[in-house]
# Entry
Amino acid sequence: MTAIEGRVLPDWAPYGAAAASAALAALLLLAAGSFNVALLLVATAAIACVLTYSWSRAIEGPRRAKDRLVTLLIVSAFALALIPLLSLVFEVAKRGIPGLSLEFITSDARGKIGGGGAAHALVGTLVITGVATLISVPIGLMAAIYLTEYGEGRLRRALTFFVDVMTGIPSIVAGLFAYALFALIFGPGIRLGVMGSVALSVLMIPIVIRTSEEVLKIVPNHLREAAYALGTPKWKTIARVVLPTAFAGLVTGVMIAIARIVGETAPLLVTTGVVDSINSNPFEGRMQNLAVYAYSEYRTPGVFKDAAYERAWAAALLLIVIVMVLNLVARLIYRRYRTEIR
Amino acid sequence: MPATGAAEPETEMARAETQSQSQLPPTAVGDGGPRAVAAGRRAKTIETRDVNLFYGDFHAVADVTMTVEPNKVTALIGSSGCGKTTFLRSLNRMHELTAGARVEGEITLDGQDVYARGVDPVAVRRLVGMVFQQPNPFPTMSIYDNVAAGLDLNVGRVKKAEKDEVVERSLRGAHLWEEVKDRLDRPGSGLSGGQQQRLCIARAIAVEPEVLLMDEPCSALDPVATLAIEDLIGELKSKYTIAIVTHNMQQASRASDITAFFNLEETGKPGRLIEIGPTEKIFTSPSQQATEDYVSGRFG
# Structure
């Protein structure tokens, strides 16, 4: 009979091992005279792997030792992935907060040399992104409905393939496409808010199609069949059973697509241009979003360089906050409206 | 040649007669409500002739000729994969929803070919309702809305009072009213499995179909819930023609009047109707050896 109980390391073992490794790594690096944070982290991780594995192997045996080793590797990879994100948010917050003020979000930059705010860019962001969403969501959703509910055979496969290709096109190409389209109609040199929206739609539509398609696919077939068995026409089954069931997922997909395009810069530089004053009409005159604002403040700071840089950072921070809020809203909506699907 | 059921052959005239006379005494099903006149009505007959069903190149069911008698429960039994469910789904044109699925032969509902050109499958499904193996209430809808779904989804605007009445009648008909009358606005997915299945039956009968097809309606339920559904089936036959697929031999013997035994010679070959007859005869003295082997537990 084999025993099912064996010796185990104490609960604090992983943390203890990590702390000991960090201390040992610091000592080694100081002794070698080449101390820096990045090296410390790498050395700590390497020593922790060896230490945990040998310690656990000696006490608990090889199976648990491997388990601990792999756990440690996964946690390290996660931490590694998190470092750039945290550092970015931290850096942008540190440099951006001083520039944030009531003036920054309420006034534009017309005639205010070395001062003014980003209200025009905020309005531009909302209008350009809003119009892009109005264009993309119906097209994307209907395309996704076609692909999941109606499409079959070669045409469906071809469309899926091209949607995948579209997800990968560089954003500047989308911008040039929109520019070329409008230049053909209105003549070269044209700059309109709606041009930016069209460019962003080119980027957004494939994302909406992809996410919606995935969400519609997980609506179980037995719900469609239940509706059919009641004598419900197909379109009504989709409108009244499939879409409501997938609602939360669809909204989340749209929100993620918005978050993805709200910070686009390159396609807007060629389509909506750079501007100083508030313009809320997408069909007339130039427009600017926050990303382009940050770019132009940094690129052409003028005489008062530091103030311009500060505003660029503040705009970047505002953009990150908007994206975070969008993601939070998406999560809230998902939690509120999600349907249990078996 | 497979026999066509147990009941005496009926001519069109005899049929019309029984229809007007309403040969069965009204039962307590669907009590109350002025629209409950349908109790004890004569439902429609389904007849199939040389039905062959395919999934792409795969021949799933071959040469089924049988009758599903009105106001009787017809059980379809047979081992897994012998095409019972496929056959059942062909009766209300659900089979063709699978990509590549094909139907050959003739299926008639009171003499009318349901696969004739010009017949709208949606209209057929309104007359021939279906209850599925897994209880599948619509997860976004309340109990009330689930039952009213058939009206909302295919009739359109219905007056609230009329809808209330249909919901109550259907829930009573499915023996669920007493359990849910105080929480009609709660989601249907919050009910137990057996209640959900009765909810699905209520949803199916709310649109007053002629025929009710049931695809192993009790396979996901415990014995108590199963018994409740079987009792319900026994009552529903006074109003509907019922065909039920089951793997449970006791269920077939308890709940059905007529039993059809399907079998397939070997995997890859199409399933065939081996024998159909009164349930008692099929279970006591079947005419085919394969049937006897199956119902006695010695699988062919």
